[in-house]
Write a structure and sequence with these properties.
By secondary structure, the chain is an alpha/beta fold. The protein is built from eleven helices and ten strands. It has a single domain, classed as TIM Barrel. The strands form two sheets. It has an eight-stranded parallel β-barrel with strand order 1-2-3-4-5-6-7-10, surrounded by six helices. A two-stranded antiparallel ribbon has the order 8-9. Helix 7 packs parallel to helix 9 and helix 9 packs parallel to helix 10.
């Protein structure tokens, strides 16, 4: 199979994105997912720095630090969130990244307030989907252990109702599925994801390095028959604060062995 193994720079926080990309590339990964940790790393101009790191950025995760912009109904902030989203899509295009990852928003609990407090947020996501479609980028909407994306049916219904256009599709995070008491392999089969985040889970421990928890990885592999996207490892950064080179090598050996062994 073509090498589509990727590793998220989110797992290498608090290092800079450039240093993280260099580490991922030096470990032998051909691809990475970029999680910008500041505004400078989310600008189109960052692509020039990323290109010097010797690795293809296959996907970009909407920065967690900036999610409060995206999910904000304030009139001024919605304008800035839409400008920021457009910049992220330009970054994806400059990097040759095929996927932009976002999370579902939380619907207004009081539905009578939805026009005021939820519709501007929905429109933020719709415009982001429109920008992605124009740029040929997939808007991957991740499952979540809470809210509308916790089950396969809920995630698909959320995406259909969101109206973010043809660029929007479901993605599966294996740990988030476990947290929602869903079987990751069954989740994958049900939604047919356009993108993946792979990490392990055990009891209260989440986002463990893949292979170090209780996920049935053979079942996950079998459920991914026909999947055409990237296999993106996204463990929690705390596991990579020390010895990142050795641990990255172990992560690459695991995913290669799983998919090709």
């Amino acid at each position: 199979m073509a090498n589509k193994y990727s590793f998220s720079t989110a797992a290498l926080f608090p290092r800079s994105a450039a240093d993280s990309l260099r580490l991922v590339g030096s470990a032998g990964f051909a691809h990475a997912e970029l999680m910008p940790q500041c505004f400078a790393e989310a600008k189109e101009s960052f692509a020039l720095k990323a290109e010097k790191c010797g690795i293809h950025v296959a996907s970009v995760h909407y920065p967690l630090a900036m999610f409060s912009m995206l999910y904000n109904a304030g009139e001024g902030m919605t304008r800035e969130a839409r400008e920021f989203g457009a910049e992220l899509v330009r970054l994806c295009a400059a990097l040759g990244a095929e996927v932009l990852v976002v999370h579902p928003h939380d619907p207004a609990k009081d539905r009578s307030l939805a026009p005021l407090l939820e519709e501007p947020i929905r429109r933020n996501l719709q415009i982001l989907g429109e920008d992605c479609a124009k740029a040929g980028v997939t808007l991957a909407i991740e499952n979540s252990p809470k809210g509308p994306g916790r089950t396969p049916a809920g995630l698909l219904e959320y995406i259909l109702g969101l109206g973010a256009g043809p660029a929007a599709g479901p993605m599966v995070d294996t740990t988030e599925a476990c947290e929602a008491d869903e079987n990751p392999a069954d989740f994958i089969r049900a939604v047919k994801p356009v993108h993946l985040h792979l990490s392990d889970h055990s009891g209260e421990a989440k986002h463990l390095p893949a292979g170090e928890g209780e996920v049935d990885w053979n079942a996950v592999r079998d459920a991914l028959a026909g999947y055409k996207g990237y296999y993106t490892l996204e463990p929690l950064y705390r596991f990579y604060l020390d010895e990142p080179e050795r641990k990255l090598g172990k992560a690459l050996a695991f995913i290669t062995g799983l998919m090709e062994g």
